[in-house]
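Standup notes
- DV: blocked on the single-chain target, sequence here:
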Amino acid sequence: MPSKKKDLVKCLTGKFRFSQLDGTKHETYGLIVNDIRVATIRFSRSWEDIGDNMMSQLGRELGVDRKQLLAMCECTISRDRYIEILEGKNQ
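- DV (later): unblocked, structure below
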């Protein structure tokens, strides 16, 4: 099921407080926790729709699978829970 890039960006920058990062040819967003960038995601500036395969790749960039990424945007995974997921992968 294709998703809109603008909706995913809105979710990440709003609920999860990702910040837009400068200096790349792509749209780049990062999640900073305690002054450390813990996640980064990049989008081509030309994208409008994001297909299932690309959602899976974007999820991997964020350290989650496609289902978890969709759950993040559907508000069933909170920002705190997402950070716990990332911390669990780093142990």
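- Follow-up: The chain is about 45% helix and 25% strand.
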